[in-house]
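Cadherin domain-containing protein
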Amino acid sequence: SLVGKTAHDLGVNRDTFSLRNPRIEFDGRSRYCEINVQNGELVINERIDREELCGLKPLCTLAFDFFMENPLELHRITLEIEDINDNNPAFPHSEVKLDIPESADKGSRFSIDEAVDPDSGINAVQGYRLSTNPHFSLAVQTSAETGKYAEIVLEHELDREKQDKHSLILTAYDGGNPQKSGTVVIQIRVLDINDNKPVFSQPVYKVSVPENLPVDSVVVTVSASDADEGANGDVTYEFSHMPVNAKSIFSINPTSGEITIKGPLDFEDSPSFEIRVKAKDGAGLAATSKVVVDISDVNDNAPFIMIKSLKTPLMEDMTVGTEVAVIYVQDKDTESNGKIKCFIQQNDHFKLTPSIKNHFALVTAEALDRERESEYNITITATDEGSPPLTSSKTIRLFVGDVNDNPPAFEQQSYSAYISENNKPDTSVCSVGANDPDWRQNGTVLYSLVSSEVNGVPVSSFLSINGDTGVIHAVRSFDYEQFRNFTVKVVARDNGSPPLSSNVTVKVFITDENDNSPQILYPVPDGKSLMTEMVPKATLSGSVVSKVIAVDADSGQNAWLSYQIFKSTDPGLFSIGLHSGEIKTQRDISESDNMKQNLVISVKDNGQPSLSTTCSVNLLISDNLSEVPELKDMTYEDNNSKLTSYLIIALVCVSTFFMTFIILIVAVKFCHRRKPRLLFDGAVAVPSAYLPPNYAEVDGAGTLRSSYNYDAYLTTGSRTSDFKFVSSYNENTLPAGGTLKKEHNIQFGSSMITLDVTGNEDE
């Protein structure tokens, strides 16, 4: 049933009414009413019984709080409960027994316990009716203390001998519509003379007792006396009228008149009771008195804490001062016993602020950070000012909701990875890791490579990364000799909205493997030229006569080269520096030493396993070319095939014919110019880069001087047999007056050109 339009009366927008979490709060009572959160109407939730709720109070009201949030509003609603005629008048007993002496005078009055109707106003007891009889009439009395009650009046004298019993019916009726009534049977017994009725010592008994009075304690003792003797003077006590809620609390001793407690008292439920006590003698004459019991309050109720509103989880980015919860604290006691102090235990992040009428707001005092503390247990304590004070507490649990406010953080500021060259594709290079303290998807980290280029090639051609684990793999095989290191950037991005990211630099270093053999730079490798170096006969022990130069494309110890003589014509004559490659004489050169020396040098690196290569060094021990009867290819070739021999013979023949023709042409031109000039058409000159290096000139040390470097002219087309012509760089070697002679040496298949100097320069 609709009883009020709350939203309309308060002027609240109906569109936002439901968002403000409207509700009503009762102080521990039944929820008689409820609020419709859609339209703001106040409706009845369960049946209301005015008599149960308010008893005999003339005005019955139901008060409760109407509560709204955002912003916080509290309104006190008072609902007046109007009475309907739903109760019949009722007498305390269904039958009343009266003993009236036959000597009673005409006009004597005998009171009857009033009928009680829990309804109020017009619906309460309005009057009485007495059944028709010849001896008694009805008189209705009204008292401020007792209300309306009935008295029967003796109209005619009684005669016990004629009729010793009379039966009457008394009816009480209310003013409701329809009218309701209640009856009681009055049984009258006519007795001999009883002159006096009981008289109470005081018309009203007032007493005050604390609400914590123990059960069976005496509240008050009523006393009445009767001047008659014998049975007519014996007085008994009983309750003639008492409230419904008092019936379970008080009891009376019918003989002594002691009123005792048989149930607990509660000041908060009923602060006072009004009870009427009847004293009756043995002849049936009775008198009434009123007993007023006031209940004094004691501090027997601890404060009651109610959480009316609670927001959880709390987002960690909420502003300081945001309302988190609304707490209502109530103490049913009165005065100082009901005054309350409310506080929370030490907590820097929250504070409690007073609000409306025993309401407190729990608000944030500092910024929240879920990563530092994800939940809070807030203990709210309420203490009254009674003596001794009573305390109660309640703990609420608050969870902090996550906001994507933390980017992923890498475990290291930068990463260095090392991978050996010649690796297999998909080899793991390294693993990067980033942590995001946020929760669930806000803390899920995904990895990727930043687009960039390495030597003009996309980085994705070199590396790939597992987006979930952060493991970096090689896409291809690396070569240390091509590039030794490169740098990439890795991005760690969370899955929040919006996503946050951070990056880190990963430096990848290619480690060298011994995959390159030493390379001989000097002497020139076989197949390109045949190099012969002259060593003066006066060379002393320890003199440098030549040097082997080699390099290794590897690095580190893989490029540390060592030299040793693998094979030599005279093993004891020459030695080579282990790391310098310098060829030195171990002793002085003697006349008995072979003029032609061939050394096979082994060059080895320091890798594991080590790689090596060899080269041949040809040395000619002589001070002058004229001392050499012939030049012979000193290359050791142990396994030449017959085909190679035939080719050598053919080439020598062709070369001889060709050289003879050249010599004739040169001689003719020489004669004409009177200054000889050698011209060899078709000869191929060896580039000077292939010549041995010029060592420092040290006189007397036997070191080969630069003036002993000669050009060698070769014929083309032969790899194993060459025709050589030696010409000095010194212009004075061939004087202007010299003559040219040609000698043949069939044994070695070569020609020697000699020049004789004449004394006449004009010829």
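thats it. The chain has a mean pLDDT of 81. The longest strand covers residues 181-191. bye
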